[in-house]
Amino acid sequence: MNKTIIVVALGTLLSMSIYSQDIVLKGKELFGNLEARQIGPALMSGRIIDLENHPTNAKIIYAGTAGGGVWKSENGGASFSSIFDDHAQSIGVVAIDPSDPDNTVWVGTGEIWTRNSVSIGDGLYKSNDGGANWKKMGFENSERISSIEINPKNPNEVYVGVLGALWGDSEDRGVYKTTNGGKNWEQILYVNEKTGANDVIMDPSNPNILYAAMWEFRRTAWGFNSGGPNSALYKSIDAGKTWNKIHNGFPKGDLGRFAIAIAPSSPKTVFAVVESKEDKGLYRSDNAGANWELLNEDFGLVVRPFYFSRLVVHPTNPDILVKGGLFGSISRDGGKTFKNLGNMHADIHDIVFDINNPDAMYVGTDGGVYRSWDGGATMDMVDNLPVSQFYHISVDNEEPYNIYGGLQDNGSWWGPSSSPGGIEARDWNRVGVGDGFRVLKHPTKNIIYSEMQGAQNVWRYDVDKNYTKNIQPLPIKGEADLRFNWNAPMAVSEHHPDRFYMGSQFLHVSEDMGDNWKKISPDLTTNDPAKQDKESGGISTDKSGAETHTTIFTIAESPIDEKVIWVGTDDGNVQVTQDGGATWTNTVTNIEGLPKNTWVYHIEASSHNKGTAYAVFDGHASGDMNTYVYKTSDFGKTWKSIVTEDIKGFARNIQEDYVNEDLLFLGTEFGLFVTIDGGQNWSRFTNNMPATAVHFIDLQKKTNDLVMGTHGRGVIIIDDISPLRQLTQEVLVKDVHFFESKPAIIKEEGGFGGGSTELQFVGDNPKADAKIIYYLKKRHTFGKMTLTIQDQEGNEIVSLVPGKAKGINVVDWNFRKKGPKVAAGKTFTFGGFTAPRVAAGDYKVVLKKGKKQYESSITIKNDPTSLITESDRTAHQKLTKQLFDDMEDLAYLVYKIDQQIKKAEELSKNDPTAKKVTSPAIAALTSLKETLVVTTGDNYVAEAEPQLREKLSQLYAEVADQFEKPSYAQIENQGVLETRLNEAEASYEKIESKQIAKLNKYLQKTGGAPAEILDKENFINK
């Protein structure tokens, strides 16, 4: 074959191949300006890990949270702002550089209070601008960083204590040091792969003296072990070159976790709370750790050492020290006696004292930050830290829809997706106590199901009657005891509203909302006795039920076929029945590449095919941090992975779109990931969406809102994800594409809302505007681009600011036309900011991009709940139009007066002999103007008497903003004001025929030109 023909053929094939490749958008190129909104709440807040205050500025305080990132206060703790959204939200420690406290801040990620539901970190970060920007400084595999100590005399010398992996062995543990500001790190204290540094502190009087508490520990899904022969307290006096144990006076045998603290005002006084089998409690040394004496064995000091190991000494009084604990313990006699801190949320994790006020302190708890001004006797909660930790959420179909969910140590709640004035604390309602998990609304009745840890209580709450009944399944005589997961699964049938499911090791079903139960399965778990009924806690027994294992964890009834039910267990089984529970098949052996016994965290039964389901597996409780998400289309006979390298973090939940089965939403430890092609490509959603752990996702069918329950940043909503389901390859190749959208509703609302103070968190409402949503293949950077709304005849109604980003653009339209031209005056008038609403109907959307024009349409509808008749609407529109025209007529009249006065004043200034004609004209025009607009004073203390403009403007704004038919008083008032306007125009014509005529005649005689006055149309459009 001719070489030329071969080359041409190959080129043709290559071009066809390139052309046929799918367009793949990632990140913000895909999402454009679709944006999440965070609705909190903050009234139950969340777990605080670490508090740090500025060494010289008492107004600056940092709070590191369990799953909500780092927050900063610049007003003494009155309010906080998030400063760490783009990074891992689980925080271990925050440290402020004492030599540059305004700028240099370090953050170690990964929670250090190692309960079963902790999140993980991804390294060490540093900011050089007070938290505005962050740079990673290493330790990517550390998982948990407990301590950061900075040499106050040399900021380049920093020590980092790495607690390390919780669920497995790791050599990334111990104490590390840098001498060049974090460029390089040296491991200066290492024990073994099971023992990490749970605390490192520096002597404030000598930066070469360091104390390091090393802790041997391990957690599994079914147990926890604290302590061992390798737990020890070490001291270095040579900046970490050498270390020695300092146990003289400590208990013999294996030790557990230490809490240690130096008295800043007396550095040789060191305190340590020691976890041990015997003689556990508070020890004191007055010779820098050379000898120790047991002072106190109070329960509040030794309870749950893995969870409470923070000891803080007052900065100026060595006799005042506080220990974190169930209620927090404070001593004022050097540790001899303690009493509880004031009333606040239980579980106290950290305390800082105000640097100036010896009686002021801040406390971090499982329920947020508290402040005290009387030494801890009374506590006041910070009301604007929305770091609540949801395990699960669900939604109902009310308008606005409600969100239901359970929180870590903060009960169960439900609240609205929107509320007048924003979503406030008082909008949330409690439906459970303790650790809250799943909360589900009955599909047709005003009944809510909720639960607390381990199904200790399963409540059916009748909202109307305010009546609660406990309905948990109970063991039956002669049969096995029931094993419920700490996070016990519940589900409500989509086919029978009163049908309610719960899972122990068996699947239970009730046909009468929990009054009666029956089992419809055998034990669906591995029933491995090695993972059951074990003593947990290690040195300190901690058997709370949180480690109950070999249980059902997720239940999914097919929305297509009620007989198809999926069950996933915490020990790795994926069970399915196709006959309502008569027979079951374990399909997990059909999943390739999945480690055995990996926790089945969620199963999503497809809305498109009854044989299709998605299974999300979470292996982090066995030390496996990989992402596992699989799909089956044949009832589990075969499975395929839909995971790519784009996904970061182990996953917990997946949500399939109800319309487009290729649109999937995945919640991981580090945020939300979205695919529009069935899992071939994933992108992390970052628009106002922090990198927080997403534990559960629901999709509201009426609004198409994606609702997320996060374990650290409360509820987060992406309003109307429908554009994402319309993104196909046919759309992606277009330069511009308008998305189909539901008709926009003009909500007839105008009530009062709000009442929270500026220091209370208020969740954002969704925007009530109409949305114009379109896709741009490329970002618009050069040339003119406009977006207008037109009527069906092509007349422009309003011009909007177009979005120009690559990807999805959302432009809001508030249903308003252009506002009226307002007469110029000394003050502004509020009616001038009011534009009339359009009538319901169809409108054109016109996008001009350079020389190209693209059109779409938008439908506007009146509120379907409205009682207003069409004749009333016509009357409203008529009077609004009359007042609008009156406003512009007045504006034009005042404009003509001003132009004539300006001309006369210029002539008078340049030609003193002209005053005989200018003075009468100026006097007459000014006198008329003073009856039309305010010409003196201001809008506040020197407010002048309202004139025609102010009265007309007030009436216009009042009528334009209302929905109903105008009142007789409004109609009559319009007539009165229009009569005054007509009289004013007649007065101007008289002045024009006399004084202005004489002025113009003089101008003509002296070679001057009369005032330049635009015609009304040009003036209005100016």
TrEMBL record:
InterPro entries: Sialidase_sf (IPR036278), WD40/YVTN_repeat-like_dom_sf (IPR015943), Xyloglucanase_GH74 (IPR052025)
Disordered: annotated span: 518-545
CDD domains, A to Z: Sialidase_non-viral
Gene3D superfamilies noted in UniProt: YVTN repeat-like/Quinoprotein amine dehydrogenase (2.130.10.10)
Native organism: Aquimarina celericrescens
Domain of life: Bacteria
Protein's recorded name: Sortilin N-terminal domain-containing protein
Signal sequence segment: none
SUPFAM superfamilies: Oligoxyloglucan reducing end-specific cellobiohydrolase, Sialidases
